[in-house]
Amino acid sequence: MAVHLYTASGTVLAFxxxxxxxxGDAIRALWISLAALVIxxxxxxxxxxxxxxxxxxxxxxxxxxxxxDYITYVFAPVVLLWTGGYLPEGWVGGTLAALPxxxxxxxxCRVDAKTDDHFFLGFPSYWNVVAxxxxxxxxxxxxxxxxxxxxxxxxxxxxxxxxxxxxKIFRSANLLFAALWxxxxxxxxxxxxxxxxxxxxxxxxxxxxxYVVSSVYLTLTGTSRRRTVTPETVEAA
Length: 237
Known about the structure:
Blueprint lengths: L1 H21 L3 H24 L2 H4 L5 H23 L6 H19 L10 E3 L5 H10 L4 H14 L5 E3 L8 H20 L7 H24 L9 H6 L1
Helix pairs in contact: 1-2, 1-4, 2-4, 2-6, 2-8, 4-5, 4-6, 5-7, 6-7, 8-9
């Protein structure tokens, strides 16, 4: 049950993130978002190591994880973008803010949103990452809005995106690069509210590029479908 409580703590972080957003403290909100990322990146591995599904079969940890992910990856980041003035004003900004909420609501209800071979199908609702770059790179509201439109549309495009902690292909590289990205995230935030070093921002974007290109490559080549996932390999994840 402690692992489920660890996962559920993400709801509290989302609450604190929304408070920070309404307080006008975007940097505090991003630090809280980083903590949520760390929890989300480790709770699944802990659950599998401790065989939580077997020891507490009456509790649906996957549903809890989806609830936490929606409010930490989707709802709270969109609130942050809206309250911080990172979207256009008026009905245009409101419409743009609604797109990720609606698109991700659809995605989180898809039974194949997480594939059997451990990929995300469609853009995996990384709106917290979008919010991070919109803030630290001081993107214009219109640029941020365009990104929201594109990523919302990509939710419906059947590209299989790497699930860093579970996808077997390139797993070691995926975990290493994801960890380095989290370090870069922290380094960039530590430089705020002054302007962050754009060299570090661009270096961090190399991981985003790797993630997208690798995901598209694996989808187009069908490489992921040629890898068989057995109960033994899932347990070792």
